[in-house]
Structures are given as structure tokens and as C-alpha cells.
Design brief:
The protein has three helices and 27 strands. By secondary structure, it is mainly beta.
């Protein structure tokens, strides 16, 4: 079996993994699962009958049902049909019931029809527009690019291509060095989400900790720093951008997640380790209301990925990458 059911006995055997005395329904990956090993999770999207995982540096997708069973592995390395060179994002187009996978290195978006399984992939060329994520807002598609002076593209689908019909959104930032182009491009280096319920498009800066909220009708932009977000220290000299981790640690933005009728911005707290990679010391999230993001909440050991009718999908990287389903509806 590609997952393991959790019993009461395992709670005592793995207190660090389960955390907060909260028992998940199941865990895939982790140290003990030799069948379904996971890499670091880049993105997860919840579909009606399954959820799809994109791992960092992976050229394929993994499709699981909500019992933790692996249904499909899709893709391999390459530039041909059904192949990927470096997929960067996943999103669900609910109106057309399809999964959208952006692969900038192949300059295309792969669209899978979502039925009992993911079928009939269609390939949409995006050219050299620099688009690295796409989301659906009703009948419209919105693309995110890091190209100044605008960061968002309204896209039209025709003839196997996605063509930009309009560009909008400024790479705004309140960072003290925000006038420098190397810092300003960081304003759109994070995730994209189309919030159909709120009729808005949301973009987050992974490094600067700012959230851009666009009214989907007027395209009016509001940019707000995340209260409590501690960013890495940036310095610019000539054409060199230097990043210095503060001794006390810093945050990065991991995702924008639909959650119980609202949208959360999810952050990770990292602590610098001399001579080694930074160590994760937990996750925190904030809701994004009409006025922008609220303050970050209490720290959790599991990263919120997606909310489904089955419970909360959460991820953890230490001691090994794992995804768990918590039926209590939150990540401990």
C-alpha cells in the first residue's frame, strides 16, 4: 500500500511527527513510507475526487485520492507530449473541470480534464511571455509574470495558444530598497490565486512578505505588508543583490490557500544554521480580507496545503517530506 493508516500505537512512537497530540487519518511519505516517497512539496491542488502534488525539481505529478492512495503519476522529463521540464504551479479551473499545469521551460500550460482520473491533456502554448503561474476566474484566465512594468496578464485561449489581451498590476513594494529593479522584481515572486467568491486576484511576494489584491472588475490594486512578517535582509550594490538571513530567523511565503470560504497566506519561519541550510521552525498563516492580510496566527508544525470535504491536507518536511490528512479540519 502506498500509504499507512495511523493507529493509537503510532501516536506514542512518533510524537514529533504527529505533534500537538493530533492524530492524522493517514500520512504519505515521511521516513517510514518506502513505497510513496515524497520530495519537498512545491504545490498541491484539491480536486473534487483527488488531490494533485507537485514536488520541487520534479518533472511529474502525483494524483492521490482522499484515502491517501496513489492513483496516477503523470509526466516525465522532456519536451514532448505529456512531458515537463520544470513545472512551477498547479491550479483548478472549476468551471471547465480541468487541472492547469504551468511549465515555463516548455513555454506551455498543460490542461487535464478532471473526471474519475486526469485524462485527455491539452497543450496550450504561452510563448515567451514569462508566465509562470495561471489561475481561472470564471471564464477568464489570469497569468502571473515577473516582467516589469506589469505583473498580470489577462489571457485568451484560442487555437492551442494562450494570448495576452491585457496587462495590469504594478510590482509595488514598500521595501526601503523598492526603487531598485532587482528588489522590485521580488514583488511578484510568490504565488497567484483567483478568488472567484471575492471577485479578486491575489498575488504574494515570497521574499518581501507583501500581498497584492486586485479587484477583478476594476483591476484596482491594493498592496499590503503581512503584519508580523519578518523578511530576509536585502542589500544591493551595483548589479549584485545580497540576501543576509537575520540571526533571529525570517519568514517566506509558501502559498495562497482557499480555506473555509476565505483565502489564507501561508508562511514558513526559517532559522539560519551556520554552514548548513536554514532550519524550519514552523508555519503560520493569516486570512486575507477586504483590507488585505491580517496578522500571522500561532505557529504550527504542519503547513496548510488545501482544505477538502475530507479534512485538512497538511505537509511537513522534517524529518522527511510527508503529507497528512487531519479530519479535525486544521493543521496542528
Amino acid at each position: 500500500m502506498p500509504f499507512r493508516q495511523i493507529s493509537a500505537l503510532i501516536v506514542f512512537a512518533a510524537p514529533l511527527l504527529l505533534g500537538a497530540q493530533t492524530t492524522p487519518r493517514w500520512i504519505i511519505g515521511g521516513e517510514d513510507d518506502v513505497v510513496t516517497q515524497l520530495g519537498r512539496v512545491r504545490a498541491v491542488v484539491a480536486l473534487p475526487r483527488s488531490f494533485v502534488v507537485l514536488e520541487r525539481d520534479a518533472s511529474f505529478l502525483k494524483d492521490f485520492d482522499y484515502s491517501g492512495r496513489l492513483l496516477q503519476t503523470l509526466g516525465r522529463s522532456g519536451g514532448g507530449p505529456g512531458e515537463y521540464r520544470g513545472p512551477t504551479s498547479l491550479s483548478f479551473d472549476a468551471r471547465n473541470q480541468r487541472l492547469l499545469v504551468v511549465d515555463p521551460s516548455n513555454a506551455r500550460v498543460t490542461a487535464y480534464q478532471v473526471r474519475d482520473s486526469l485524462v485527455a491533456p491539452r497543450f496550450l502554448k504561452v510563448g515567451d511571455s514569462g508566465i509562470r503561474s495561471v489561475c481561472a476566474l470564471g471564464t477568464r484566465l489570469i497569468g502571473l509574470a515577473r516582467n516589469a512594468p506589469t505583473i498580470l496578464r489577462a489571457l485568451r485561449e484560442e487555437g492551442g495558444k494562450l494570448t495576452a489581451t491585457a496587462s495590469f498590476g504594478e510590482p509595488r513594494t514598500k521595501h526601503p530598497l523598492g526603487s531598485h529593479p532587482m528588489v522590485r522584481t521580488r514583488a511578484s515572486d510568490g504565488p497567484l490565486l483567483c478568488d472567484e467568491q471575492g471577485n479578486r486576484v491575489i498575488v504574494a511576494s515570497a521574499m518581501l512578505g507583501e500581498v497584492h489584491v486586485f479587484d477583478a472588475s476594476s483591476r484596482q490594486q491594493v498592496t499590503t505588508p503581512i503584519p508580523g512578517f519578518q523578511r530576509i535582509t536585502l542589500a544591493v550594490e551595483d548589479s549584485v543583490l545580497t540576501m543576509v538571513p537575520p540571526v533571529g530567523g525570517y519568514h517566506v511565503v509558501h502559498g495562497l490557500v482557499p480555506w473555509e470560504g476565505s483565502v489564507r497566506v501561508v508562511t514558513e519561519r526559517l532559522r539560519p544554521m551556520p554552514g548548513d541550510a536554514p532550519m524550519s521552525v514552523g508555519f503560520a498563516f493569516a486570512g486575507i480580507g477586504a483590507g488585505g492580510p491580517g496578522a500571522l496566527g500561532a505557529r504550527t508544525q504542519w503547513r496548510p496545503l488545501a482544505k477538502s470535504s475530507s479534512g485538512a491536507l497538511c505537509a511537513q518536511e522534517d524529518p522527511a517530506p510527508a503529507i497528512a490528512l487531519f479530519t479535525a479540519g486544521s493543521c496542528p
